[in-house]
Amino acid sequence: MKNRIVFLPVDERFCTRDYFLLLAKAAGLNVVTPDKRLLGMKKTTPDIQRLHEWIKNTVRGDDILVASVDMIVHGGLIPSRMSLESDQTLNKRLEILDYIKSIGTKIYAGVCVTRAPFYNSAEEEPDYWQYYGENIYNISRELVKFYEKKITSDELAQSIAKVPSWISEDFFIRRNRNFRLVSRVIDYVKKGTIDFLNLTLDDNTQGSLSLWESEKHQKKVDDLGLLSKVSIHAGADESTLTLLAKVLCDEFKVTPKFKVVYTEPEYKSFIPAYEGRPLEQGIKSHILSAGGQLCENGEDIIFYAHNPTARKESNEQEDVESERYTETVDSLKESESIVGIACIKYTNGSDNSMAKAVLNARLNWNIFNFAGWNTAGNTVGTVCACSIIQYLGKKGLLKIDSYEMLKLQFVFFLEHWAFQSNVRIDLIKKANDEKGVPPWSVIPIERWAVDFTKNELKSYADFIAQGIGFVYGDFDIFFPWHRSFELGVTVKTAKD
């Protein structure tokens, strides 16, 4: 593809920024993106005026912009939950999209429905969430019941009264403001400024305010006749990967046919953790938003879902021999189609048994890809994007760099499986027991944590490299937000 892609991630994390850059590099795409220093850091909002200047000075008429609206107007995903900016300010910032469209640039955008997590933690929320998070979560669910006329205003008031009035007021003001912003973004699709919108629900459940809001947005999309231009589904961090695949499908005018296969077909309607809709519905939405088509007999791409039967985290997984899945994986080896393996049996990490079975199978990684991280939506979107790019390479529409694609798979296995499902558990325990550091934080012991994690990952890395046929020299790791929840990985070639 000759067009440049100007990429504006939702934040500076490895999973939201570097996954995209690594995949784009493997696909031979020309991507321009701001320096990480322009993107802020977690709760630290970037200089948005300076960021907008970068955009205006960079974007050309023949470019394609893949951008997070949350970054453009709030300064990132976490700031979107915390910002105190007015509707007027946010709407003014949104107008930069009108300028970009005026010079002829295509715009593929993502925006998140604000979450309301169920726990007491201010890690990614306003400070008062540390003390009133559970109460606010309950208020949000009671609010849905009130909207649906299942409880009275007096019952709702009783729930609201459990938190200080200034906190509930702050929550409602911020929430309603963000709802109006998303609605305005949909208007930007209607008037043709945004060519395609990926509207994602960040951590939601049945009965949640996020899900209720998304249904109102869906009705607006339906009423405006925008079904082909707006996708609404669970996810967040993978959103721009989905948009990258959609861009390429649109540019090459192809619609890859997906056939979905489940490890546990009787559980395909199971609702995964942190999501509010059945898995099969979520997979279909992700496929469509990435530019694909669900088709029982069309097998351009086989989407293999190693799906959950219960809501369990990766640190709660069963100890099952990998041979249990050997026959299944071996059957996939016979396929001539692209095969994407979405390891979503557990949340926040891959299934040990499936990962080992896949690596032991010695698959052809020119047509296979694997992911298994965070939520089901995160993994499903990642696999859809990688599968589509491999498909476009197979058709000769893209020139895939096999080494770079293998490197991406190496990173995925190292982070999604080795770290998230194994090393992270030991890291947290040792940090707590031996260093007196509470779970998730690594700030007081970060140098030790980096050394410990890398050392523990070395044996996994060799096994992964052998399993996918990848030759590397060394790798380094870092903690993007100075916590143990996720990794950044840099891979050195054998020549380095």
Describe this protein's structure.
With 496 residues, this protein is α/β, with parallel strands linked by helices. It has three domains: 1-253, 3-Layer(aba) Sandwich (Rossmann fold), CATH 3.40.50; 254-400, Rossmann fold (3-Layer(aba) Sandwich), CATH 3.40.50; 407-492. Helices cover 48% and strands 13% of the residues. The chain contains 17 helices and 13 strands. It has helices spanning 14-26, 48-58, 69-73, 77-82, 87-94, 96-102, 129-147, 153-160, 165-190, 209-223, 239-252, 279-289, 326-333, 352-360, 376-394, 402-435, 446-468; strands at residues 5-8, 31-32, 64-68, 106-113, 196-201, 230-234, 257-262, 293-294, 301-306, 338-343, 368-371, 474-478, 488-492. The strands form three sheets. The protein has a six-stranded parallel sheet with strand order 2-1-3-4-5-6, sandwiched between helices. The chain has a five-stranded parallel sheet with strand order 8-7-9-10-11. Strands 12-13 form a two-stranded antiparallel ribbon. Helix 1 packs parallel to helix 11 (239-252). The two termini are 30 Å apart. The mean pLDDT is 96.
Keywords:
Rossmann fold, alpha/beta, 6-stranded parallel sheet
How would you classify the helix and strand content by structural class? Answer: alpha/beta
Secondary-structure element string: EHEHEHHHHEHHHEHEHEHEEHEHEHHHEE
Mean pLDDT across the residues is 96
Low-confidence stretches: none
Distance between the termini: 30 Å
Q: How does the major sheet shape up?
A: 6 strands, parallel
Strand content: 5-15%
Name of the CATH architecture of the largest domain: 3-Layer(aba) Sandwich
